[in-house]
Structure prediction request, 339 residues.
Amino acid sequence: MKGPEYKFEDLKLACHEKGKVILWNCAQSDASQYFNLRKLSNVLNFVANDGLEKLQHIDTRPLELPLKPPVNPNPNVDAYQFYSGDLRGYMAFFFQPITKFWNIKSFKAHQDGDDRFHQLAGLAKFLNEKPKS
Amino acid sequence: MENKVEKIICPACGSDQVETHAEDRQLNFPYAGLMAFRETMNHCNVCGVDGDFGQSNETAIAAVEEQAKKISIEAMMSYLNEQGNSMAYMERALDLPQRTMVRWKTGECSSSSLALLRMVRTLPWLLKVSEARFDPISTMQIVFSEGVKLVGPLVAAMHPSARFDVSVNSQHPSELEVVTRLSLNDQNKQIDYSEYQEIRLAGSRS
Prediction:
């Protein structure tokens, strides 16, 4: 698995400064709904002040924008899971060198997978089973 | 919905094809309910990302938070007073300086005071716990007693003549002993039977 693209400390430092980090709308809505972090400043202070406990890098993938326009250079997105109390969270972010903005594109309660994943896993298990003789 | 195109740069792709619009949104606050406010939202027509790129919603959300705070303080205090808890009693029980709660009501309520008030409003028996100076044995008795108050109606709902009683036996000051009894007398069926269940919780005073 590829390691993280960015130093997490760099994001934390950016969160301390005004106008360096932006939250996508879905991330802000989820942060409000799941973590009671209603404002951008709430989320940034939470990240900057070590609110993300047991932080663990999940993966790093090239950025995919909703309308998929060509972006050059196309940054990578780091995804992490974390805990806050008993609540497990998921955060994905990237740094866009064109705009010099850190973008938090996802900040939500973490789910291991959805039903489709489980159905596919079941199908894979079924396909891998050896026929009974 | 008001739409206009401004020269705001999309932080995700760098495009200046960013549309700004305002929409009504609601936030839910404890003991204040849903509060509406006008939110400014940006949409990048090139990459499709939505967000508050100009970071202009902070003030609007802070204002609605302040409004919700005032409404909830009024509602929580009114409820606690209606339940027979005077401000003087609550201040004494919580070991707060006199007239603290009046100041809360008139707007001098910090975030930590608001958190305390929400807890007391949700679990009013915390006043008794605080009044007992957080003594572990008293706390356990109060928690248990309040639990029984919740369980009692549930048991009664299961059977009209069911009773769920609790008595506290603290003859031995070094130990806590709580005895619960679940009895069931069905007089409608002319049957006099009882189910007796005893649960003993013993804890040493540390």
